[in-house]
Amino acid sequence: MADQTTVAVLGTGIMGAAMARNLRRTGHDVRVWNRTAAKAEPLAAEGAYVAATPAEAVTGADVVLTMLYDGPATEETITAAAPGLREGAVWLQSTTVGVEALAPLADLAARHGLHFVDAPVLGTRAPAESGQLLVLAAGPQEVRDRLASVLDAVGSRTLWLDDNGASAAATRLKLVCNSWVLALTHGTAEAMALSKGLGLDPQTFLDAMSGGPLDCGYLQTKAAAILNGDFAPSFAVDTAAKDARLIVAAGAAEGVRMDLAAAGAERFRRAAEQGHGDEDMSASYFASFDN
Protein backbone atom coordinates (compact mmCIF):
# COMPACT_ATOMS: atom_id res chain seq x y z
CA MET A 1 0.00 0.00 0.00
CA ALA A 2 1.16 3.54 -0.75
CA ASP A 3 1.15 4.63 2.89
CA GLN A 4 3.48 1.75 3.74
CA THR A 5 5.97 2.47 0.97
CA THR A 6 8.86 4.84 1.55
CA VAL A 7 10.39 6.17 -1.67
CA ALA A 8 13.67 8.04 -1.90
CA VAL A 9 13.86 10.28 -4.98
CA LEU A 10 17.43 11.18 -5.88
CA GLY A 11 17.42 14.04 -8.38
CA THR A 12 14.66 16.64 -8.22
CA GLY A 13 14.99 18.52 -11.48
CA ILE A 14 12.02 18.98 -13.82
CA MET A 15 11.15 15.29 -13.91
CA GLY A 16 12.22 14.13 -10.47
CA ALA A 17 10.41 16.92 -8.63
CA ALA A 18 7.17 16.19 -10.49
CA MET A 19 7.48 12.48 -9.75
CA ALA A 20 8.12 13.19 -6.06
CA ARG A 21 5.03 15.41 -5.86
CA ASN A 22 2.84 12.73 -7.40
CA LEU A 23 4.22 10.14 -5.03
CA ARG A 24 3.33 12.37 -2.08
CA ARG A 25 -0.15 13.09 -3.45
CA THR A 26 -0.83 9.37 -3.67
CA GLY A 27 0.11 8.73 -0.06
CA HIS A 28 3.71 7.64 -0.26
CA ASP A 29 6.31 8.58 2.30
CA VAL A 30 8.85 10.50 0.18
CA ARG A 31 12.43 11.43 0.96
CA VAL A 32 14.28 13.61 -1.57
CA TRP A 33 17.80 14.76 -2.34
CA ASN A 34 19.27 16.95 -5.05
CA ARG A 35 22.84 18.07 -5.67
CA THR A 36 21.58 21.66 -5.81
CA ALA A 37 19.61 21.73 -2.58
CA ALA A 38 17.44 24.68 -3.64
CA LYS A 39 15.72 22.45 -6.20
CA ALA A 40 14.67 19.98 -3.52
CA GLU A 41 13.63 22.38 -0.76
CA PRO A 42 10.22 23.36 -2.24
CA LEU A 43 9.15 19.72 -1.93
CA ALA A 44 9.10 20.09 1.86
CA ALA A 45 5.85 22.03 1.42
CA GLU A 46 4.43 18.90 -0.24
CA GLY A 47 5.31 16.81 2.79
CA ALA A 48 8.54 15.31 1.49
CA TYR A 49 11.55 14.95 3.76
CA VAL A 50 14.46 16.90 2.25
CA ALA A 51 17.75 15.16 2.99
CA ALA A 52 21.19 16.74 3.01
CA THR A 53 22.96 13.72 1.51
CA PRO A 54 22.05 10.74 -0.69
CA ALA A 55 22.77 8.38 2.22
CA GLU A 56 20.35 10.26 4.45
CA ALA A 57 17.70 10.26 1.72
CA VAL A 58 17.76 6.49 1.18
CA THR A 59 17.78 5.56 4.87
CA GLY A 60 14.72 3.39 5.48
CA ALA A 61 13.58 3.55 1.85
CA ASP A 62 11.78 0.60 0.29
CA VAL A 63 12.27 2.04 -3.21
CA VAL A 64 15.10 4.27 -4.43
CA LEU A 65 14.19 6.21 -7.59
CA THR A 66 17.03 7.90 -9.46
CA MET A 67 16.28 10.68 -11.95
CA LEU A 68 19.66 12.28 -12.55
CA TYR A 69 21.56 13.70 -15.52
CA ASP A 70 23.46 10.67 -16.81
CA GLY A 71 25.13 7.37 -15.97
CA PRO A 72 28.21 8.73 -14.19
CA ALA A 73 26.09 11.07 -12.04
CA THR A 74 23.84 8.14 -11.14
CA GLU A 75 26.74 5.85 -10.24
CA GLU A 76 28.34 8.57 -8.13
CA THR A 77 25.08 9.28 -6.29
CA ILE A 78 24.26 5.65 -5.47
CA THR A 79 27.84 5.12 -4.31
CA ALA A 80 27.41 8.08 -1.98
CA ALA A 81 24.07 6.66 -0.84
CA ALA A 82 25.57 3.25 0.02
CA PRO A 83 25.79 3.73 3.81
CA GLY A 84 22.02 4.27 3.98
CA LEU A 85 20.86 1.60 1.53
CA ARG A 86 18.77 -1.28 2.87
CA GLU A 87 19.50 -4.72 1.46
CA GLY A 88 16.48 -5.94 -0.46
CA ALA A 89 15.30 -2.45 -1.43
CA VAL A 90 14.29 -1.84 -5.04
CA TRP A 91 16.35 0.55 -7.15
CA LEU A 92 14.10 2.09 -9.79
CA GLN A 93 16.64 3.52 -12.21
CA SER A 94 14.81 6.13 -14.35
CA THR A 95 17.67 8.22 -15.71
CA THR A 96 18.42 8.00 -19.45
CA VAL A 97 21.92 6.60 -19.05
CA GLY A 98 22.54 4.84 -22.36
CA VAL A 99 23.42 1.20 -22.97
CA GLU A 100 27.10 1.32 -22.04
CA ALA A 101 26.49 2.90 -18.63
CA LEU A 102 23.78 0.47 -17.57
CA ALA A 103 25.92 -2.59 -16.76
CA PRO A 104 28.01 -0.78 -14.12
CA LEU A 105 24.80 0.38 -12.45
CA ALA A 106 23.39 -3.15 -12.38
CA ASP A 107 26.68 -4.38 -10.90
CA LEU A 108 26.51 -1.64 -8.28
CA ALA A 109 22.99 -2.73 -7.35
CA ALA A 110 24.11 -6.33 -6.97
CA ARG A 111 27.02 -5.35 -4.71
CA HIS A 112 24.60 -3.61 -2.34
CA GLY A 113 21.91 -6.28 -2.42
CA LEU A 114 19.38 -4.15 -4.31
CA HIS A 115 16.74 -5.37 -6.74
CA PHE A 116 17.61 -3.50 -9.94
CA VAL A 117 14.81 -2.24 -12.19
CA ASP A 118 15.76 -0.28 -15.31
CA ALA A 119 12.82 2.08 -15.77
CA PRO A 120 13.39 5.13 -18.00
CA VAL A 121 10.28 7.18 -18.74
CA LEU A 122 8.78 8.80 -21.81
CA GLY A 123 7.35 12.25 -21.35
CA THR A 124 8.35 15.78 -20.44
CA ARG A 125 7.25 18.35 -17.83
CA ALA A 126 3.47 18.30 -18.41
CA PRO A 127 2.96 14.51 -18.34
CA ALA A 128 5.40 14.23 -15.43
CA GLU A 129 3.41 16.78 -13.45
CA SER A 130 0.11 15.05 -14.19
CA GLY A 131 1.43 11.55 -13.51
CA GLN A 132 0.96 10.52 -17.13
CA LEU A 133 4.45 9.31 -18.02
CA LEU A 134 4.98 6.07 -19.91
CA VAL A 135 7.34 3.88 -17.91
CA LEU A 136 9.55 1.47 -19.88
CA ALA A 137 10.64 -1.17 -17.41
CA ALA A 138 12.82 -4.25 -17.11
CA GLY A 139 13.20 -6.03 -13.80
CA PRO A 140 12.40 -9.16 -11.79
CA GLN A 141 8.84 -10.43 -11.49
CA GLU A 142 9.08 -10.71 -7.71
CA VAL A 143 9.31 -6.94 -7.15
CA ARG A 144 6.65 -5.79 -9.60
CA ASP A 145 3.77 -5.91 -7.13
CA ARG A 146 5.84 -3.90 -4.66
CA LEU A 147 6.36 -1.25 -7.32
CA ALA A 148 2.76 -1.06 -8.51
CA SER A 149 1.69 1.92 -6.39
CA VAL A 150 4.90 3.80 -7.21
CA LEU A 151 4.58 3.26 -10.95
CA ASP A 152 0.88 4.10 -10.90
CA ALA A 153 1.68 7.38 -9.14
CA VAL A 154 4.18 8.59 -11.74
CA GLY A 155 2.83 7.07 -14.95
CA SER A 156 -0.32 6.26 -16.87
CA ARG A 157 1.12 2.97 -18.09
CA THR A 158 4.09 0.68 -17.49
CA LEU A 159 5.43 -1.43 -20.35
CA TRP A 160 7.39 -4.36 -18.88
CA LEU A 161 9.98 -5.63 -21.34
CA ASP A 162 12.23 -8.13 -19.54
CA ASP A 163 12.69 -9.92 -16.22
CA ASN A 164 16.29 -8.72 -16.02
CA GLY A 165 16.99 -5.04 -15.39
CA ALA A 166 20.57 -5.49 -16.56
CA SER A 167 19.40 -6.58 -20.03
CA ALA A 168 19.16 -2.92 -21.11
CA ALA A 169 15.88 -3.72 -22.92
CA ALA A 170 14.16 -0.69 -21.38
CA THR A 171 17.10 1.63 -21.98
CA ARG A 172 17.41 0.46 -25.59
CA LEU A 173 13.73 1.18 -26.25
CA LYS A 174 14.05 4.58 -24.56
CA LEU A 175 16.84 5.51 -26.96
CA VAL A 176 14.76 4.43 -29.96
CA CYS A 177 11.79 6.46 -28.75
CA ASN A 178 13.95 9.48 -28.02
CA SER A 179 15.45 9.30 -31.52
CA TRP A 180 11.93 9.83 -32.87
CA VAL A 181 11.13 12.63 -30.41
CA LEU A 182 14.32 14.50 -31.27
CA ALA A 183 13.73 14.07 -35.02
CA LEU A 184 10.27 15.61 -34.62
CA THR A 185 11.71 18.44 -32.53
CA HIS A 186 14.36 19.36 -35.08
CA GLY A 187 11.96 18.92 -38.00
CA THR A 188 9.55 21.37 -36.41
CA ALA A 189 12.31 23.84 -35.56
CA GLU A 190 13.80 23.77 -39.06
CA ALA A 191 10.43 24.14 -40.80
CA MET A 192 9.61 27.15 -38.62
CA ALA A 193 13.05 28.65 -39.27
CA LEU A 194 12.77 28.09 -43.02
CA SER A 195 9.35 29.74 -43.04
CA LYS A 196 10.88 32.81 -41.45
CA GLY A 197 13.87 32.75 -43.77
CA LEU A 198 11.65 32.59 -46.85
CA GLY A 199 9.58 35.52 -45.65
CA LEU A 200 6.49 33.50 -44.74
CA ASP A 201 4.30 33.76 -41.71
CA PRO A 202 5.15 30.47 -39.93
CA GLN A 203 1.49 30.11 -39.04
CA THR A 204 0.74 29.45 -42.70
CA PHE A 205 2.91 26.33 -42.50
CA LEU A 206 0.93 25.14 -39.49
CA ASP A 207 -2.34 25.91 -41.28
CA ALA A 208 -1.18 23.79 -44.23
CA MET A 209 -0.42 20.87 -41.92
CA SER A 210 -3.53 21.21 -39.77
CA GLY A 211 -5.82 18.18 -39.78
CA GLY A 212 -3.83 16.32 -42.42
CA PRO A 213 -1.79 13.13 -42.20
CA LEU A 214 1.41 15.10 -41.46
CA ASP A 215 -0.11 16.95 -38.52
CA CYS A 216 0.42 15.87 -34.93
CA GLY A 217 0.00 17.29 -31.47
CA TYR A 218 3.74 17.41 -30.88
CA LEU A 219 4.26 19.59 -33.98
CA GLN A 220 1.61 22.02 -32.77
CA THR A 221 3.00 22.17 -29.23
CA LYS A 222 6.61 22.81 -30.20
CA ALA A 223 5.66 25.21 -32.99
CA ALA A 224 3.51 27.20 -30.56
CA ALA A 225 6.48 27.50 -28.21
CA ILE A 226 8.60 28.87 -31.05
CA LEU A 227 5.88 31.26 -32.26
CA ASN A 228 5.29 32.59 -28.75
CA GLY A 229 8.96 32.74 -27.83
CA ASP A 230 8.19 30.58 -24.81
CA PHE A 231 11.22 28.39 -24.22
CA ALA A 232 10.54 27.54 -20.58
CA PRO A 233 12.13 24.10 -20.30
CA SER A 234 9.94 21.05 -20.62
CA PHE A 235 13.07 19.14 -21.67
CA ALA A 236 16.23 21.21 -21.82
CA VAL A 237 18.59 21.58 -24.78
CA ASP A 238 21.60 20.39 -22.77
CA THR A 239 19.82 17.21 -21.66
CA ALA A 240 18.50 16.56 -25.16
CA ALA A 241 22.04 16.95 -26.51
CA LYS A 242 23.25 14.33 -24.03
CA ASP A 243 20.50 11.95 -25.16
CA ALA A 244 21.34 12.56 -28.81
CA ARG A 245 24.95 11.57 -28.16
CA LEU A 246 23.79 8.40 -26.39
CA ILE A 247 21.60 7.52 -29.38
CA VAL A 248 24.48 7.98 -31.82
CA ALA A 249 26.80 5.90 -29.62
CA ALA A 250 24.24 3.09 -29.21
CA GLY A 251 23.73 2.91 -32.97
CA ALA A 252 27.46 2.95 -33.69
CA ALA A 253 28.02 0.07 -31.27
CA GLU A 254 25.65 -2.05 -33.39
CA GLY A 255 26.83 -0.82 -36.80
CA VAL A 256 23.82 1.50 -37.28
CA ARG A 257 24.49 5.01 -38.57
CA MET A 258 22.30 7.60 -36.87
CA ASP A 259 22.85 10.53 -39.22
CA LEU A 260 19.79 12.53 -38.14
CA ALA A 261 20.61 12.10 -34.47
CA ALA A 262 24.21 13.19 -35.08
CA ALA A 263 23.07 16.27 -36.98
CA GLY A 264 20.57 16.97 -34.23
CA ALA A 265 23.27 16.78 -31.58
CA GLU A 266 25.19 19.41 -33.55
CA ARG A 267 22.08 21.64 -33.68
CA PHE A 268 21.71 21.38 -29.91
CA ARG A 269 25.40 22.20 -29.49
CA ARG A 270 25.01 25.37 -31.55
CA ALA A 271 21.86 26.37 -29.66
CA ALA A 272 23.63 25.86 -26.34
CA GLU A 273 26.63 27.85 -27.59
CA GLN A 274 24.21 30.70 -28.34
CA GLY A 275 23.03 30.66 -24.72
CA HIS A 276 19.97 28.39 -24.98
CA GLY A 277 21.30 25.34 -23.12
CA ASP A 278 18.86 25.67 -20.21
CA GLU A 279 15.88 26.39 -22.44
CA ASP A 280 13.42 23.93 -23.94
CA MET A 281 14.76 21.73 -26.72
CA SER A 282 12.49 23.54 -29.20
CA ALA A 283 15.25 26.18 -28.98
CA SER A 284 16.88 24.01 -31.65
CA TYR A 285 15.16 26.69 -33.77
CA PHE A 286 17.96 29.14 -33.02
CA ALA A 287 20.58 26.79 -34.43
CA SER A 288 19.25 27.63 -37.90
CA PHE A 289 20.55 31.19 -37.60
CA ASP A 290 24.00 32.63 -37.10
CA ASN A 291 22.95 34.55 -34.01
Walk me through the structure.
With 291 residues, the protein is α/β, with parallel strands linked by helices. It folds into 2 domains: 2-167, Rossmann fold (3-Layer(aba) Sandwich), CATH 3.40.50; 172-288, N-(1-d-carboxylethyl)-l-norvaline Dehydrogenase, domain 2. Helices cover 48% and strands 14% of the residues. The protein has 11 helices and 9 strands. It has helices at 14-25, 54-58, 71-81, 99-111, 125-129, 144-154, 169-197, 202-209, 217-228, 237-253, 259-276; strands at 6-10, 29-33, 49-50, 63-66, 90-93, 115-118, 121-122, 133-138, 155-162. The strands form 2 sheets. The chain has a 6-stranded parallel β-sheet, with helices on both faces. Strands 7-8-9 form a 3-stranded mixed β-sheet. The longest helix has 29 residues, at 169-197. The protein starts with 5 loop residues before the first strand and ends in a 15-residue tail after the last helix.
Outline type: globular
CATH architecture of the largest domain: 3-Layer(aba) Sandwich
Alpha-beta classification: alpha/beta
Number of helices, counting only DSSP H or I runs of 4 residues or more: 11
**Helix share of residues?**
40-55%
| Biggest sheet descriptor | 6 strands, parallel
Order of secondary-structure elements: EHEEHEHEHEEHEHEHHHHH
Mean pLDDT: 97
Would you identify the regions where 5 or more consecutive residues have pLDDT less than 50? none
Alpha-carbon distance between the two ends: 54 Å
